[in-house]
């Protein structure tokens, strides 16, 4: 707060007069000098306050402390300096991420170019980034880049000063396919794996969620780290990035990942991922036994399933029960499905569905079955052929001109239909890839 001493001045006129003999109305305030603030009160009295430090009064009548800064408009910054208001107008042009900044001295009430008053003016963006410490000045002066472009392997500054001293700020994997710069947030490669760059070396971490057919609610979080130079990050990322969820089948038999199929006791078993509906078998599109958290459900009967399930139940963690229908094992939190349906595809409701489709990896599917691959791909078994469709969203972030432009998006569908397309390879290659980017300049050409 301003320290003050009150001085009452009695003026015998109908209106107040300031120190320059200007007429003032009741309620008006003004500075007699940088350390004296005066107010016109009722009955033409002037009440002055002596301040302990010099202040300024802006054009709106607000008192500003010494060295206080404020924005007079979106592109004009002002500062109170020992009772005097000094203002600077910023003329900013942006080309391919390079900010050309020209500070121009101006007065508080001077006119400014209309383009600087636009809601998304480049100078406003520059000032906001600078205030938050997110801009870096090029060595040549007058030119700036955003901090996120420092040490990214591309010289934005004409003098290339943004790439100097970056030996420990850029990391790459052993195959040259993954590049990272120093960043506290790192890079999220999948929903269970992230990588960080520190002192020129990459460190990646995967958080694997392991489920158990004997426990509906129970799971285990297994964290794996791979740090250069002791660990091969390229191999670690390639082999484990997309495997975020697994299941322990029988004790000591290792971990099977989501989407993996294996054989045991003469039958095929498949882990579709954790299942949220308690007491209900998942929709089964394949003639296999589905293994998930809390139960095992088999889509078809075979002579070896029932004794095979009894054998399996004795080797699982938890207390499990083999159901009378011979096609289910359930944990204490689940219950047997007493309906007489064939436990094939619950969405089809047709137990006479035949196995008509097979992909290139020998996985079989029921006729009419529909299943999802990741978040943007859906596949169907139609008259003996697998048809897959993926919705892909492409984004282009337009470069700055005089104003900021929002990112544009293009959405299109991509199809893979047997026999012309290898459905198994297509699913594995594009699983989880739902977004991309495009060069808007190429589309315009």
Describe what is shown at a glance.
This protein has 445 residues and is mostly beta strands. The protein has five domains: 4-53, Complement Module, domain 1, CATH 2.10.70.10; 70-146, no CATH class; 170-203, no CATH class; 210-331, no CATH class; 355-444, no CATH class. It has helices spanning 122-131, 233-240, 305-313, 423-430, 440-444, and strands at residues 4-10, 16-17, 23-24, 29-33, 36-40, 45-51, 56-57, 63-64, 69-73, 76-81, 84-95, 98-106, 135-137, 143-146, 170-172, 179-181, 187-190, 193-198, 201-212, 215-227, 245-248, 255-257, 261-264, 267-270, 289-292, 295-298, 320-322, 328-331, 355-358, 364-366, 370-373, 377-382, 385-396, 408-417, 435-437.
Explain this structure.
The chain has five helices and 35 strands. The chain has helices at 122-131, 233-240, 305-313, 423-430, 440-444, and strands at 4-10, 16-17, 23-24, 29-33, 36-40, 45-51, 56-57, 63-64, 69-73, 76-81, 84-95, 98-106, 135-137, 143-146, 170-172, 179-181, 187-190, 193-198, 201-212, 215-227, 245-248, 255-257, 261-264, 267-270, 289-292, 295-298, 320-322, 328-331, 355-358, 364-366, 370-373, 377-382, 385-396, 408-417, 435-437. The chain folds into five domains: 4-53, Complement Module, domain 1; 70-146, no CATH class; 170-203, no CATH class; 210-331, no CATH class; 355-444, no CATH class. With 445 residues, it is mainly β. Strands 9-10-11-12-14-13 form a six-stranded antiparallel sheet. Strands 17, 18, 19, 20, 21 and 22 form a six-stranded mixed sheet that branches. A six-stranded mixed sheet has the order 23-24-25-26-28-27, covered by helices on one side.
């Amino acid at each position: 707060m301003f320290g003050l001493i009150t001085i009452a001045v009695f003026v015998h006129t109908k209106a107040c007069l300031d120190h320059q003999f200007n007429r003032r109305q009741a309620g008006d305030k003004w500075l007699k000098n940088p350390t004296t603030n005066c107010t016109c009160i009722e009955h033409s009295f002037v009440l002055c306050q002596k301040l302990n430090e010099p202040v300024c009064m802006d054009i709106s009548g607000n008192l500003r402390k010494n060295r206080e800064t404020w924005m007079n408009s979106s592109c004009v910054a002002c500062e109170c300096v020992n009772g005097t208001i000094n203002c600077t107008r910023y003329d900013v042009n942006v080309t391919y991420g390079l900010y050309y900044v020209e500070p121009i001295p101006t007065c508080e009430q001077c006119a400014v170019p209309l383009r600087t008053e636009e809601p998304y003016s480049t100078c406003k963006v520059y000032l906001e980034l600078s205030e938050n410490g997110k801009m870096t000045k090029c060595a040549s002066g007058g030119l700036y880049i955003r901090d996120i472009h420092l040490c990214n392997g591309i010289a934005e500054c004409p003098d290339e000063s943004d790439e100097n001293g970056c030996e420990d700020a850029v990391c790459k994997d052993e195959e040259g396919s993954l590049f990272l710069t120093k960043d506290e947030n790192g890079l999220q490669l999948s929903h269970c794996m992230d990588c960080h760059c520190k002192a020129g070396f990459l460190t990646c971490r995967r958080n694997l969620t392991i489920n158990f057919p004997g426990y509906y609610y129970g799971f285990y979080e297994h964290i794996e780290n791979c740090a250069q130079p002791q660990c091969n990050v390229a191999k670690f990322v390639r082999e484990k990035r997309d495997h975020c969820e697994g299941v322990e089948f029988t004790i000591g038999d290792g971990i099977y990942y989501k989407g993996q199929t294996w054989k045991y006791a003469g039958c095929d078993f498949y882990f579709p991922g954790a299942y949220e509906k308690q007491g209900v078998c998942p929709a089964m599109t394949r003639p296999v036994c589905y293994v998930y958290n809390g139960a095992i459900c088999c889509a078809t009967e075979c002579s070896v399933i029932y004794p095979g399930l009894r054998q399996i139940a004795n080797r699982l963690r938890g207390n499990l029960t083999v159901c009378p229908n011979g096609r289910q094992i359930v944990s204490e939190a689940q219950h047997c499905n007493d309906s007489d349906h064939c436990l094939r595809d619950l969405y089809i409701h047709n137990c006479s569905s035949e196995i008509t489709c097979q992909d290139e990896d020998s996985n079989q599917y029921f006729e009419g079955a529909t299943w999802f691959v990741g978040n943007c791909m859906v596949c169907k078994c139609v008259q003996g052929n697998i048809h897959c469709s993926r919705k892909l969203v492409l984004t282009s972030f337009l470069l700055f001109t005089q104003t900021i432009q929002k990112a544009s998006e293009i959405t299109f569908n991509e199809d893979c239909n047997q026999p012309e397309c290898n459905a198994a390879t297509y699913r594995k290659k594009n699983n989880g890839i739902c977004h991309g980017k495009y060069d808007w300049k190429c589309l315009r050409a």
